[in-house]
Automatic annotation (TrEMBL):
Pfam families: NamZ_C (PF20732), NamZ_N (PF07075). GO terms for molecular function: peptidoglycan beta-N-acetylmuramidase activity. It comes from the Bacteria. InterPro entries: NamZ, NamZ_C, NamZ_N. Residues 61-261 form the Peptidoglycan beta-N-acetylmuramidase NamZ N-terminal domain. This is DUF1343 domain-containing protein. It comes from Mucilaginibacter pallidiroseus. Keywords: Signal. Residues 265-408 form the Peptidoglycan beta-N-acetylmuramidase NamZ C-terminal domain. Transmembrane segments: none annotated.
Amino acid sequence: MMSVKLFVPVLLVCQLLFSCDDYAQNKKSTAAPATKATVKVITPAADQVPVYIDYLKGKNIGMLINQTSIIGPKKVPVVDSLLKLGITVKKIFGPEHGFRGNAADGAKIDDTKDAVTGLPVISLYGKHFKPTSEDLKGINLMIFDVQDVGTRFYTYISTLHYLMEACAENNIELVIFDRPNPNGSFVDGPVLDTAYRAFVAMHEIPVLHGMTIAEYAQMINGQGWLKNKVKCKLKIYKVANYSRDMAYMLPVSPSPNLNTQQSILLYPHICFFEGTNISLGRGTNYPFTIIGAPELKGQYSFNFTPVSMPGMSDNPPLKGQTCYGIDLRNYNTDTLKRNGRLNLAWLIEMYNEYPDKSKFFIPYFTKLAGNKTLQQQIIAGKTEAQIRQSWEPGLSKFKAMRTKYLLYK
């Protein structure tokens, strides 16, 4: 049994997807009016203001948030909502891409002051990944509310790890406003070989872990992954009306280059190309939905040319070069869900088509794969089925372990 207290939210319907103004006007009555047919909708925890607001009162709060940390259809930033409701927020902490989500991939970000709220913003993707005791000074409650996309190499779960560790070491409780995982319907991929541990590969999990942020936080605690096996005190607010097989359309881009629902759903399968000399569309308006390289001219007719796009890709790979390859913008992503597995076909195909195979992979590939084996298997001409077989028994062991931490069906 988990020691974490789980707060199961009331089943809020669409009439309760309100902004802070709506809450202030209706705080005496939070029930939706009775109707003959009430449609249940997925309701992220942050939208459920009446469920958590009293718990936050009287506390000095820090918030790890970004542009995805919003409330309701009006997309009110959760920090603005809490401040307007009289909650004391002392500091904002920002992950990769920054608090406003407008920094390019991998760009180091400095501490600053938020122009809207006047609050200090501490970067956890600049001088350090982990909050210091000084960063947390004066805070007695932290909130984590960031939309994740469910893959090992998306760095928000790494930032979550370091925040949990810092909170545990400084005796600060961490509240998690949970959000759905758009890639949460299946679990697949090679489990990390810890010899290749990195910020994009911190834990012994497969590429697709099939968990929400709150479930993942429970796993970090339960598996003793924090330094010295410290435990972070968690208080979790769940997503209402959610099961992991439900489709979830993200209302805000989780990062600059995941700018469409198509890119979010293709991301786990396409990100491996970051570790090759193939462009995955950075420097275009369609990142993670198109792939290609100059060397593939003649093999493919579809082409694109990456350019500098400040805030998305300042200096994209293969900048200014015409790339030839595959257009996946209209690919039916339901196929990926039906298959229930990581797609390696595009990676294998591109390797086989690449003229000088000795230049296809770059060193970063092993960090993304979480091992050296996958690269060796592709070079050796292994089939997708043979590669997948090598993921066992690690993948099955992870799936069994994972069940202890699940909050949703």
